[in-house]
Amino acid sequence: MPQQTPPADATPADATPAGRPEIEIRDLHKSFGDNHVLRGIDLDVAPGEVVCVIGPSGSGKSTLLRCVNLLEEPSRGTVHVGGTELTDPDVDIDAVRRRIGMVFQQFNLFPHVDVTGNLTLPQRRVLGRDKARAAEVARENLDRVGLADKAGAFPAQLSGGQQQRVAIARALSMGPEVMLFDEPTSALDPELVGEVLSVMRLLAGEGMTMMVVTHEMSFAREVADRVVFMDGGVIVEQGPAAQVITRPAHERTRNFLDRILDPAAVEPPVGEDPGPTRQPEG
Amino acid sequence: MTSRLTRRQRRRVWQAIQYAVFVAVLVLVVVLADWDRLANQFAQPDLAARLFPDIITIALRNTVVYTFSGFLFGLVLGLVVAMMRLSSVTPYRWVAGVYIELFRGLPALLIFIFVGVAVPLAFPGAEIPGGIYGKVALGLGLVAAAYMAETIRAGIQAVPKGQMEAARSLGFSHARAMASVIIPQAFRIVIPPLTNELVLLFKDSSLVLFLGVTLEQRELTKFGRDLASETANSTPILVAGLCYLLVTVPLSFVVRRLEARADKAT
Ligand SMILES: Nc1ncnc2c1ncn2[C@@H]1O[C@H](COP(=O)(O)OP(=O)(O)O)[C@@H](O)[C@H]1O
Ligand SMILES: [Mg+2]
After folding, report:
1. What would the pLDDT profile of B238-262 be if each residue is shown by its tens digit?
2. Which of A3, A106, A167, B229 has the fewest Cβ atoms surrounding its Cβ within 10 A?
3. How much is the pTM?
4. Please, which residues have CB less than 5 A from ligand 2, an ion?
5. Residue at B213 is within a domain
6. What is the 3-state secondary structure (H, E, C) of chain B?
């Protein structure tokens, strides 16, 4: 990372002790009223590891990801990120969230400021960087996602793929240790998926710790160190991408993969176009 | 018999009736009104000419100043009340709700009388800063804030939920996210209704005459009324009315343009 600004309350030396996972989820439960969505998730993500989470719609993937930066408050269990327990009621959640970048399906760029503003506003308001420094970091990260020429554009003037790349650059500008992606390409036209996946591939190559909820099986197979299959609020199986995707051990995983790898077999869920995920045999 | 008419015929008959009523009312007004007396009482050109430049440099100017001071105070207070309305602290929501119902439910005139009488009584010795301008800002602002609070609340709630989530995920506190991300977007949404509120305030500023003003502090309505009684002729009232329209009609036009643009943007 070109810029690391550990918050004051983090002690970088022991933030992630050797051998300690970057993300550590223990016995995580989440209910919305009577709806018991997460039913005991245990998951570790090592520093620099890329974990792809797959599973049918409604299985709790987004909820899991949102619990990792406390956009949802877990009902039970603990979540540690970089050695800090998020679920500790005394934790400064704003300070922790600065270390965790999140990319949403709907991009969620700030429409009232231009691309540079999207990248500099959080740096200035949250990290207290001065204008010149924030602009410099913004330029670096726009460069990284290949959008240096769009610095002055407003979000509404960009394609979906460009907006999502800006959203990634915005998260990166905060210098996160971990990046969470919640179906980053599901809202995109098929021809725009590739440019976003390339940026994510680049990040993975740089050693970023990533948790990616996705339906892009080719991306998972190529980039993920580990694939986690969720169904009904539990992790059904996990392992190396090649194993889970090509030789799933569980019936439920097989059924899911059959459906998603052969879009002709079943109507794709709304807003989730699995077009480019179709796999050639082999 | 009407059942024999086709739908098209029935519509023609109905239109004919509407035109007939319109023409009848017009003819009645033209024939029955005493135009000579009206012109005599309301349209004396030499009298109208004597109103200038004071009606512009004093009366219209004061109307504008009163309106803006009330609008600014109302905007700040309205924002505070809107935030209270959306707060997670129940008593805040409750107070804001009572405030909104109270000040939307009372005639503005009563509130002006209240500001003029009750406030000096309740806080003896305490002067409302800014003299008459402070009092007007308070009176108009108290009324405007109740309406603006509801408008702003609706504007804040119209900002997609993902905006707050994106801001929080970047490390913004709730308050900072509100200030730098949500409220700037909400204000774009509420510019047309707030401009509308400005038009309403512009007219309500006439209530200043109940606060007791000096000659130099008169706004359009008071100015028109005073000169009408001095001259025993109503022409000043008509000219004052035209001065209001000079501002309100273009403002309303701007509101419609803003609304059309907002519709297109969504
Ligand atoms: N904020 C919420 N309030 C109530 N129910 C929710 C909320 N968020 C998610 N859910 C429910 O949790 C379940 C899992 O949703 P989600 O985590 O979005 O699944 P996925 O991302 O795997 O499609 C769904 O039944 C959904 O209706
Ligand atoms: Mg989801």
Report:
1. 999 999 999 999 998 988 888 887 7
2. B229
3. 0.80
4. A 62
5. yes
6. CHHHCCHHHHHHHHHHHHHHHHHHHHHHHHHHCCHHHHHHHHCCHHHHHHCCCHHHHHHHHHHHHHHHHHHHHHHHHHHHHHHHHCCCCHHHHHHHHHHHHHHHHCCHHHHHHHHHHHHHHHCCCCCCCCHHHHHHHHHHHHHHHHHHHHHHHHHHHHCCHHHHHHHHHCCCCHHHHHHHHHHHHHHHHHHHHHHHHHHHHHHHHHHHHHHCCCHHHCCHHHHHHHHHHHHCCCHHHHHHHHHHHHHHHHHHHHHHHHHHHHHHHC
Which residues span the domain enclosing A147?
Answer: 111-176
* CATH label of the domain that carries residue B76: 1.10.3720.10
Q: Looking at residues A254-278, what average pLDDT do you find?
A: 62
Whose CA is closest to atom 27 on ligand 1? A58
Task: Please report the ipTM that was assigned to this predicted complex.
Answer: 0.85
Scanning every residue of chain A, which has its alpha carbon at the shortest distance from the alpha carbon of B182? Answer: A110
A133 in any annotated domain: yes
pLDDT of residue A279: 45
Is residue A127 in a domain?
yes
Q: Which two tokens stand for residue B191?
A: 């510019």
Ligand 1 environment, Cβ below 6 A: A 32, 35, 37, 55, 57-63
Does residue A148 sit within a domain?
Answer: yes
A160-172 vs A131-144: helix axis angle to the nearest 10?
130
